[in-house]
Here is the input.
Amino acid sequence: MQRMRHKKREDEIHEFETSDAQPAESPAAGGSVQVIWGAMVETLDLGEFTVSEAFRMLRAPFNIAPAVNVLVNGTPVDGEHRLNRGDVLEFARPAGEKGAG
Here is the structure.
């Protein structure tokens, strides 16, 4: 499991270390989680994954920036937070930042 590095700006921004490695094992019947990144909204079976695991799996296909604010159900969380069925996982650009990440 890789750790997140924290940077301080106006808000706390999470910068995830990434690799091509997938989580060791997929959870069985985790449950649907709504994922939001900019205008993209998808419902995926990510229940029981940690935020870090979900980020590693979604970063390339969703083209998610390396430094993002991470919210679950509107509340900031760290990478060890475990997702549950029905959660809303949102990756958001820090306030005041534009452009491709």
Observations:
- The helical segments are 51-62.
- The domain at 4-19+30-92 is CATH 3.10.20.30 (Ubiquitin-like (UB roll)).
- The chain has one domain: 4-19+30-92.
